[in-house]
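Kindly inspect this chain:
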Amino acid sequence: MPFLPISFFKTHTVCSTQFEPEIIFESSGTSQTIQSKHAVKSIALYEDAFFNGFELRYGNPENWCFLGLLPAYLERKHSSLVYMVKRLMDESQHPNNGFYLNEFEQLHQTLKLLETNGQQTMLIGVSFALLDFAEKYNLQCYNTTIVETGGMKGRREELTREELHLQLKNSFAVNTIHSEYGMTELLSQAYSSGDGLFHCPPWMKVLVRDEDDPMHISTTGKGAINIIDLANIYSCCFIATDDVGEVFADGSFRILGRMDNSDIRGCSLLAL
């Protein structure tokens, strides 16, 4: 079965049935690119996907305090990432939940308070903002999980994931930096608990295709990334992304960079 090039979300309304969408998610993109739009028939389907995906990796959201350092996404409407983090906060109900643009001192004080209280905390942020924060503050984190969502968005010099994670580990005094792999065009997410090795939920699968022959698809090896996401039932479950990666026999995968000449998306990944 052919996979739909992800660029179609920029130029077409991608849907498998006729419906009035409950919400339309838009990519953050850059000023030079056209934003992708994902018409979502049922917001409950998206919530089921990200709540179940989160619980498989991290347990009940009620046990967490969520801090979102997502300036590039908060500055735009219709971000699926902001929606997800906001709903995780709603489920958590922790009084210190919150989003941050550039209030680094306030974020630093909140993190110190949560660490003092022994509260299990997730700081989820776009890469350039986490680096900006890490350059100004050092903090010993015993109870905080740092989750980067990728993307320098032209704000900073591109780093490899290893370089990014090393800087963040030094500033936060943690052994591992977690990562989230998601995009506007998908309703599911994969997570990495360190070393950039991502794991999918059971209803999501990553394959690799030959860049010179898109119909040559393998379950393991290196190549351009194809994704099957069954949560995309009302748009398209079979997506050919512009990312390049490596898939392993157990279904886990790494992202190695972007295909040549592809747009840098809002949640673009780090190049090697």
